[in-house]
Amino acid sequence: MGETVVIDYGSGNIRSVARALEAAGARKIYVGAEPKRLQKAERLVLPGVGALGSCLEKLRARQDLLETLEACVLEKGKPFLGICVGMQVIVEEGFEHGRQRALGWLKGSVRRLSPNSLATDKKSCLPVPHMGWNNLQQLQPHPLLEGVADGEPVYFVHSFSIHENSPSCAIAQAQYGGPTLAALAKDSIVGVQFHPEKSQRVGQKILANFLAWCP
């Protein structure tokens, strides 16, 4: 197994993701943003917490980081895992604190959750952010979810989610006042809206699947 790079662009939660990958079986882990290490890596992980715009700004501020990342993923086909905001940045645009251009690797837009659009009274309203355990509903088979039973709980913390994504890319969803995209995949790219590093046994299985995945 080659080196797994956890891309550190100044966001939080980086070290916990690295520890979870190590527990899932990663033998070599580099935490950082050195383009040469991305070029040599076997697979790449982009965690993210906070606002989409802040994440994009920090990524673009790192010299040659985005150019190298796109070459590794889009041209060389290295396995890539985006976690939470790290998944949101790869679609076309976001609407958190105004409209923002994202990376555009996949179709879709990032919009605020609206779980109460059909609520008839305050008692039935769901809070935003969506925070806590929710069941993962699988939409189609994918190696990332191999060995994970349909309906297993995973841990979410988010106020925004991806909308208008291609149905062929969606591999799992959760219900929160309606369906919300929980995981997507296309070619060498996979992304999860939930936090596998906080999802205990199920999260460890998903990370192990990513480490073993050869797209």
Architecture in CATH? 3-Layer(aba) Sandwich
N- to C-terminal distance: 15 Å
Can you identify the CATH class?
Alpha Beta
CATH superfamily: Class I glutamine amidotransferase (GATase) domain
Mean pLDDT across all amino acids: 93
Number of domains: 1
Q: What is the gyration radius calculated from CA atoms?
A: 16 Å
Indicate the overall shape. Answer: globular
| Element string (H = helix, E = strand) | EHEHEHHEHEEEEEEEEEEH
Give the helix level as a range of percent.
25-40%
Main pleated sheet: 8 strands, mixed
**If you consult CATH, what is the topology?**
Rossmann fold
Identify the strand order in the major beta sheet.
Answer: 2-1-3-4-14-13-12-9
Strand residue content: 25-35%
| Helix and strand composition category | alpha/beta
Low-confidence segments, given as residue ranges, are none
By DSSP, the count of extended strands is 14
Could you characterize the architecture of this molecule?
The protein has 215 residues and is α/β, with parallel strands linked by helices. It has a single domain (3-212), classed as Class I glutamine amidotransferase (GATase) domain (Rossmann fold). The chain is built from six helices and 14 strands. The strands form three sheets. Strands 2-1-3-4-14-13-12-9 form an eight-stranded mixed β-sheet. A four-stranded mixed β-sheet has the order 6-5-7-11, with no helix packed on it. The protein has a two-stranded antiparallel ribbon with strand order 8-10. Strand 13 (179-186) and strand 14 form a beta hairpin. The radius of gyration is 16 Å and the shape is globular.
